[in-house]
Amino acid sequence: QVQLVESGGGLVQAGGSLRLSCAASGRTFSSYAMGWFRHAPGKEREFVAGLSRSGSRTYYIDPVKGRFTISGDNAKNTVYLQMNSLEPEDTAVYYCAAKVTYVERNVVYTTPLEYNYWGQGTQVTVSS
């Protein structure tokens, strides 16, 4: 069993920054590919950024490219989402997700069904 705990959400003004953290436990962190998703009111859950198991590949949706950065720290079993130049449209509950994979080291997974474990979510609110 894998447990994911997010932190770092909050209220920030447009143009500000936040760094979300997702701490994983229960399994060797290096066995995971990781992703960040968000769910805004009235919208479907949306993939935001992903990190391959090897840590060498990342992928972002267009609206966050150049503003958000996903990274991982195997020693701390933690994945981060650095969010800069935040916009009101970024307001959502942000979830981290983990996919256990032993073979595909350089694949970034982008759909919710591909992930095995989810955190409880952290609220990010960006005021205009």
Account of the protein in words:
With 128 residues, the protein is an all-beta fold. Helices cover 0% and strands 49% of the residues. It is built from no helices and eleven strands. The strands form two sheets. Strands 2, 4, 5, 6, 9, 10 and 11 form a seven-stranded mixed β-sheet that branches. It has a four-stranded antiparallel β-sheet with strand order 1-3-8-7, with no helix packed on it. It is globular.
Observed structural traits:
128 residues, mainly beta, 7-stranded mixed sheet, 4-stranded antiparallel sheet, 11 strands, 49% strand
Number of helices: 0
Shape: globular
Largest sheet: 7 strands, mixed
Percent of residues in beta strands: over 45%
Helical residue percent band? under 10%
Overall pLDDT level: 95
Structural class: mainly beta
What would you say about this model in short?
With 128 residues, this protein is mostly beta strands.
Helices and strands, with pairings:
Blueprint: E1 3-7, E2 10-13, E3 18-25, E4 32-39, E5 46-51, E6 58-60, E7 68-73, E8 78-83, E9 92-100, E10 117-118, E11 122-127
Parallel strand pairs: 2-11
Antiparallel strand pairs: 1-3, 3-8, 4-5, 4-9, 5-6, 7-8, 9-10, 9-11
